């Protein structure tokens, strides 16, 4: 009886942590995806490459903003962020290409999870209260 009870408890408890492990591995896939497709414009650890991402460049376009919680990405809903990944940023005055065909749905979601993981806890909490 003890063995059955212990087995049931361990199965139940392992289920409680699957989301944490899943989110962690999703963020890891997101980092790989980010490093392969996004780091060139958004910088290492998504800190951006420009001192002022709000200032237009000589070509009239905006530089890629930081995605680490210091710019505006966290102000946007998951739907809006996914739309930007899918459709790019040209319509917003930037030059980000569309990734709709280059990335699969798992990679795109992992990318959002990775970016979220870079935000300070306070920003994550504000985002969660607004969008989750």
Characterise the protein shown here.
With 132 residues, the chain is an all-alpha fold. It has one domain: Cytochrome Bc1 Complex, Chain D, domain 2 (Orthogonal Bundle). The chain contains 5 helices and no strands. It starts with a helix and ends with a helix.
Task: Briefly summarize what is shown.
This protein has 132 residues and is an all-alpha fold.
Number of helices: 5
Total discrete domains? 1
Structural class: mainly alpha
What is the approximate shape? globular
Average pLDDT, all residues: 85
Total beta strands: 0
Main sheet summary: none
Integer-rounded radius of gyration: 18 Å
CATH class wording: Mainly Alpha
Feature tags:
132 residues; mainly alpha; Cytochrome Bc1 Complex, Chain D, domain 2; 5 helices; globular
Please specify the SSE layout and strand pairing.
Elements: H1 2-37, H2 39-42, H3 78-87, H4 105-118, H5 121-131
């Amino acid at each position: 009886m003890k063995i059955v009870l212990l087995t049931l408890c361990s199965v139940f408890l392992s289920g409680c942590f699957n989301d944490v492990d899943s989110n962690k591995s999703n963020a890891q896939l997101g980092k790989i995806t980010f490093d392969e497709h996004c780091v060139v414009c958004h910088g290492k650890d998504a800190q951006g490459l420009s001192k002022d991402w709000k200032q237009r460049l000589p070509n009239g376009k905006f530089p890629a903003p930081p995605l680490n919680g210091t710019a505006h990405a966290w102000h946007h809903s998951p739907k809006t962020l996914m739309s930007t990944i899918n459709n790019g940023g040209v319509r917003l005055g930037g030059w980000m290409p569309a990734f709709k065909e280059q990335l699969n749905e798992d990679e795109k979601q992992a990318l959002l999870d990775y970016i979220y993981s870079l935000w300070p806890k306070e920003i994550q909490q504000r985002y969660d209260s607004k969008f989750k």
